[in-house]
Amino acid sequence: MPPDSLTFTKTNWNGTRRSSYFPVIFSVLFLLTFVGSYRLAQVDPLLLLEAEGRRNIWKFVSGMFPPDLSWSFLSLLGWPILETIQISLMGTFIAVAIGFPVGLLATSSLTFKGILNEREMATSRPRAMLHRASYLLARAVLSLFRTIPEFVWAFMFVRAVGLGPFPGVLAIGISYAGMLGKVYSEILDHVNPGPLEALQATGASKLTIILYGLMPQALPNVVSYTLYRWECAVRASAILGFVGAGGIGQQLEISMRMFNFNQVFTLVAILFVMVAGVDALSTRARRAIMGRERI
Prior knowledge:
This protein has 13 helices and two strands; from the N terminus they run ββααααααααααααα. It is an all-alpha fold. The chain has two domains: 1-43; 72-290, MetI-like (MetI-like fold, Orthogonal Bundle), CATH 1.10.3720.10.
């Protein structure tokens, strides 16, 4: 007799088949959550079409033209633009320096699972418990870093070390460390175990297996995602200027507060060029590292 169309079947270890209602239950809960979110978030696109909404939009758009290209304004942007790039670079560097080692600890195949740990986990129970505890602690640290947005981190670091680019660097470094570490651990957990088993069969040490079996497989994806995060850091460093963390965002906040929308247009255009440039640079770097013509 065919299973009901609203259920899915699974095969147990003894060969029997049982029905699973989880996909249906999940779909219903997701739909209810979506509808509830639509109402609680007070989503009303028609507000943009009302008289006041149209008037404010037109005021903003018309105020953007012509963009401010005067030398008196552009001459003020040289250092903020350079500062934005510096914040993104140093923030990404700190994120990698923190996220990579913590990501290694948060990789289950390196700490307590898989072929690299079978013998050690079977012979020493206290060591197995210690490795599992370090794995859970690393995952918790990465989750904590990701939970707090970089905007909030910047606000806290501004309070701690004062105004300037350094709070922005710290905010990006801590927040992105959680994101990078999480993705690094996922990449390392899903590499092909074949080369690792071959190296272990030759008697290679765990460090040798990591350096010559694990990292060569994971490196292209690790580099690709790190460069992508650098692109995100350029945008984030501009936003962090709104809390006094330096960069072009600080001038953007001043222009918006003074209702100089023509300056806002110029700043957004400059930010677009910066992000596009970083994107082109990172794409070429990925092609060179991955050894392919196209990504």
